Amino acid sequence: MEYKAYTVRNFRSIPQIKLLPESLKKEMEIVARVLPFKSNSYVVDKLINWDNYSEDPIFKLTFPVREILSEEHFSRIENAIMAEKPEAEIRKICEKIKMELNPHPAGQLEMNIPLFDNQKLEGVQHKYKETVLFFPLQGQTCHAYCTFCFRWPQFSGLEGMKISSKYDEKFGQYLKQKKEVTNVLITGGDPLVMKTNILAKYLKNLLEPGLEHIHTIRIGSKALAYWPYRFLTDPDAGELINLFKEVASAGKQLTLMAHFNHPVELGTKAVKHAIRVIRSAGVQIRTQSPILKNINDSAKVWAKMWRLQAGLGCHPYYMFMARDTGAKQYFDVSLNDAYEIFREAYSKVSGVARTARGPVMSAAPGKVHVVGVSEVSGQKIFVLQFIQARKSDWVKRPFFAKFNPDASWLTDLEPAFGEEKFFWQQEFEEMSRLNLKNAAFQEEE
């Protein structure tokens, strides 16, 4: 199959789109002025049920429907267009709306970028002690964009919002100094949009002497779901698989962090074949997704997805909460509903699929796991814990929040039992005030 990208510039050429109402196409063009839009020939022809597009999860996952923006934001742009405002003025309105959508949540720019030799390491995030994220310059796009994507600023053209860098000596030196780092996650965008010869430079740098403490290299990618031919028939697909084998044979655990949001993405012959090819190269596949209203807010959907993944030899990893950015209001699921969906889905799968953890919020202090809902002394509460945290001592220490049926993020919660703050909150607030001197985390030496 030939890859063809569709954006706001050419999406009207899609045969299926031509049959849709003109009003819908105009709404898509308005939304795409704020949140980036990109699909491709595989998604359009293989994954979407166009006979029922308005209810189709993959259509909603990839095409910018009006409801993705708030009515107030949408109307601001629509009114400016109808009033025939100058294009420069409309762009300013859109830029202002983008900034109102919390483009970089959880302290990504303020708290996660480490210092080395008193300079920021651009394109790097180091939030948790053991794990460093690297954003390769050439991998900051995707085969298609998810409408919920929390990294939408990478593709939106917002000045100063893009995180990316080439691998250089400073980054290598930083890793060699940080002996506590065991994992490097190469992320984006999608690193697998890069040609294999470019990706190889990034991966092989992690095989250098002095980096033996890094035992796991992870690649965050949606390619399996959106373009499985990357591993099968792309001109350098064979080179890519050989590169995977080379990294694995060098003694590193290479893991593909695969993003699957719905069982439909696991149903084609191409994706099943690609999974077999990747696993045969010695690569582990872990799967993750946020829970999303209008897409997968159903225990039946999650149970089916986990069963399919386990049956294909993948390891279910995370059910995330949608981050507090971009189109969150459209995809929002409450913590209570997410917990009940997770619990029910978890109860319907075998032990090999019960590797999944959730629901989990990747919040500013760390990855907060909703362990459950309980009642203590007549008070209904959320039971929470950190799976990862800016300070290792916070991990796996239970803490409790008042039950709030509408809460969908950590900042919506208040401590239970009359406590003024959660046990970690004061330390985190101090970290925030100091801005960690723009470092990634604070640990006792």
Element order, helices and strands? EHHEHHHHEEEEHEHEHHEHEHEHHEEEEH
Query: What is the CA–CA distance across the termini?
Result: 54 Å
Give the averaged pLDDT, no decimals: 93
CATH superfamily of the largest domain: Aldolase class I
Number of domains: 2
Structural class: alpha/beta
- Globular, elongated, flat, extended or rod-shaped: what is the shape? globular
CATH class of the largest domain, named Alpha Beta
Tally of strands: 15
Spatially, the strands of the biggest sheet line up as 5-6-7-8-9-10-11-12-13-14-15
Which CATH architecture of the largest domain? Alpha-Beta Barrel
**CATH topology call of the largest domain:** TIM Barrel
Number of helices: 15
Task: Describe this structure as you would to a colleague.
By secondary structure, this protein is an alpha/beta fold. It has two domains: 96 residues, no CATH class; 324 residues, TIM Barrel. It is 32% helix and 19% strand. The chain contains 15 helices and 15 strands. The chain has an eleven-stranded mixed beta sheet with strand order 5-6-7-8-9-10-11-12-13-14-15. Helix 12 crosses helix 14. It is globular and about 55 Å long. The C terminus is likely disordered.
Topology:
Layout: E1 5-7, H1 15-18, H2 22-31, E2 38-40, H3 41-47, H4 57-62, H5 71-82, H6 87-100, E3 115-116, E4 119-120, E5 124-128, E6 131-134, H7 169-177, E7 183-186, H8 196-205, E8 216-221, H9 223-226, H10 237-249, E9 253-259, H11 269-280, E10 284-291, H12 299-311, E11 315-321, H13 328-331, H14 335-347, E12 357-362, E13 366-376, E14 379-389, E15 399-402, H15 425-434
Parallel strand pairs: 6-7, 7-8, 8-9, 9-10, 10-11, 11-12
Antiparallel strand pairs: 1-2, 3-4, 5-6, 12-13, 13-14, 14-15
Helix pairs in contact: 5-6, 8-10, 12-14
